[in-house]
Amino acid sequence: MILSDADILRRLExxxxxxxxxxxxxxxxxxxxxxxxxxxxxxEFQHANIPCIHxxxxxxxxxxxxxxxxxEGGEYILHPGDFVLGTTHERVEIPDDLIAHVEGRSSLGRxxxxxxxxAGLCDPxxxxxxxxxxxxxxxxxxALTPGMRISQLTFTELKTPAxxxxxxxxxxxxxxxxxxxxxxxxxxxxxxxxQ
Length: 195
Known about the structure:
Layout lengths: L4 H10 L3 E3 L4 H4 E2 L2 E5 L3 E5 L12 H7 E5 L6 E3 L4 E11 L4 E7 L1 H4 L3 E2 L6 E2 L4 E10 L5 E3 L4 E9 L38
Antiparallel strand pairs: 1-7, 2-3, 3-13, 4-5, 4-7, 6-12, 7-11, 8-10, 8-13, 9-11
């Protein structure tokens, strides 16, 4: 079951679903979703002199990722073909009986802005800000302003709560993240990690 605005409000008021700061619920809570705003931090991928990225090598990722913070009132220009990691302004806590789906807003999609390449899911038990995988598929640069509504979360209720929710017990790599996070795939079991 997908939660409606009434369901979302009820869960927020009960405190088992957390989205904070939720500064303007009348605007941010949509009929079946919550709009999330763009944070001020970005990870930009620089051109690097490496033949390829090896998912099992953390050092290579650091070589071509540069952090950028936009000052209040500033804007981030996303150029055609660019891919950057951004973050939501809000921090979320997803209860064990919900999955949150990260979606783009239609108004930005019509400007060719995509907010996630593949990671459009927040597992039950996830807590933290959400890293956005921002791309400009268009032919013109687009100005993104921290604080603008950039994405939306929809919530699906599970038939039963997750037995093993996302979190520290599982060794989940992105639990509690603040700001955009680069890939931590080298921590996956198939690359010698423990996850």
